[in-house]
Write a structure and sequence with these properties.
The protein has helices spanning 60-72, 89-92, 95-102, 110-120, 133-141, 148-164, 237-248, 268-289, 300-303, 310-329, 352-355, and strands at residues 19-22, 25-31, 38-46, 49-53, 79-83, 106-109, 174-176, 181-184, 187-194, 201-206, 211-215, 256-259, 265-266, 333-337, 343-347. Helix content is 33%, strand content 20%. The chain is built from eleven helices and 15 strands. The longest helix has 22 residues, at 268-289.
């Protein structure tokens, strides 16, 4: 019987304040729009100042709240460095402002830093796809109508006003690699890299404190978006996501996980097994749906229950394609480009009839999350 997750805290810190969760480790939140409402950020205390782990969106309100934190919580000491787990706007939105203000380094993995630099030149995370022929080919082949790109353009202009535009990145950074150890204060923090949600996501694990700062790699309630995008149309991110879960199962079972969303929790191995089981169930449901050739767009109800707007449809389609690509990698689906210009997926594993259980799947998710 699986153990339930344990949540040591009932509520999030009030805006502009921090909560000490362990020696030299503080927790704060910054606001976000939509159903997520917040992002969790963390501070690591060193002898001469503080390290900031993730930064929040690039909005005026977030900058104002950081001013309050610097004034009220830092004891007159500076930021010594900014560590960003990955390149999504809610994690790097204030990285340039903070590193410029304190003239301190930015720490990221190489792939995350340079992908952030690439997206920042386009102005919006994922927003360039609506204006390129590559984006048009991608979405049409997976079943979307031609006017869908126009819907995406409107959606991304709206998301930019909500702080989802990519900020200008600092001109340089200090590279984090899997297995690196950062000595901060009296503790060592090991860099543990995962992939799938983003290409080279860095988590920080302090064995002495029994804490892991997990970013979006391990979340207790919601599931991180794992998608194929027009920028890399043949990617297989779900394979790396599942392999990362296997890797993180080595985390000590009583570790306190400090995630980017929801509340801190204990039960990391239970949560990882839940996520592995959930995706395996979704994969099998897609196989069962593809006993007759299916366009990716028509698989969305297999994964998600609610009617989706343009943004949610983009994420849902990306996730459906990611599941199909992993099944292709496992030689359980084949993909064929038909005369109408659309890909169709067909189940090809002769053992499917034995494995199938169409009436026993998890209910489709309420909606995809942009985290």
């Amino acid at each position: 019987m699986q153990r339930e997750l344990i949540y040591p805290y009932d509520t999030h810190p009030a805006p502009g304040t921090t909560v000490e969760v362990a020696d030299g480790v503080r927790w704060l939140t910054m606001p976000m729009g939509g159903s997520l409402n917040h992002i969790n950020l963390y501070l690591l205390e060193d002898e001469g100042g503080w390290y900031v782990v993730d930064t929040g969106l690039g909005t005026e309100r977030t900058a104002e709240l950081w001013d309050e934190i610097f004034t009220e919580e830092f004891g007159g000491r500076p930021v010594l460095g900014v560590i960003c787990t990955h390149m999504h706007p809610d994690h790097i939105g204030q990285a340039g402002n903070i590193t410029e203000r304190f003239r301190c380094p930015l720490y990221m993995t190489r792939t995350e830093y340079y992908q952030a630099r690439a997206y920042s030149s386009g102005g919006s995370f994922g927003g360039g796809s609506h204006s390129s022929w590559q984006g048009a080919v991608f979405y049409e082949r997976y079943g979307m109508p031609r006017d869908y790109l126009e819907q995406l353009a409107v959606m991304w202009s709206r998301r930019s006003s909500e702080g989802m535009s990519m900020p200008e990145m600092p001109m340089g950074y200090h590279r984090l690699q899997d297995g690196d150890v950062l000595s901060i204060g009296h503790h060592d923090w090991q860099v543990v890299v995962g992939s799938g949600h983003s290409p080279e996501h860095a988590c920080l694990h302090c064995k002495a404190l029994g804490i892991m700062i997990s970013g979006d790699q391990i979340l207790p309630i919601i599931t991180s978006n794992v998608s194929v995008h027009p920028t890399e149309p043949e990617a297989n991110p779900l394979q790396f996501w599942m392999e990362s879960h296997d890797k993180f199962l080595d985390t000590p079972p009583d570790t306190l996980v400090l995630p980017a969303h929801n509340l801190p929790f204990r039960g990391v191995r239970e949560r990882l097994r839940q996520l592995i089981s959930h995706h395996e169930d979704r994969l099998l449901a897609i196989e069962e749906s593809c006993v007759e050739p299916q366009v990716a767009k028509d698989l969305l109800p297999v994964l998600f229950a609610r009617e989706l707007d343009a943004r949610q449809t983009m994420m849902a389609l990306g996730e459906a394609i990611a599941h199909c690509h992993l099944l292709m990698h496992r030689n359980r689906l084949e993909r064929t480009l038909h005369e109408d210009g659309r890909y169709r997926f067909l189940s090809i594993d002769p053992d499917l009839a034995r494995r199938a259980h169409p009436d026993q799947h998890d209910a489709p998710d309420d909606r995809p999350m942009m985290v």
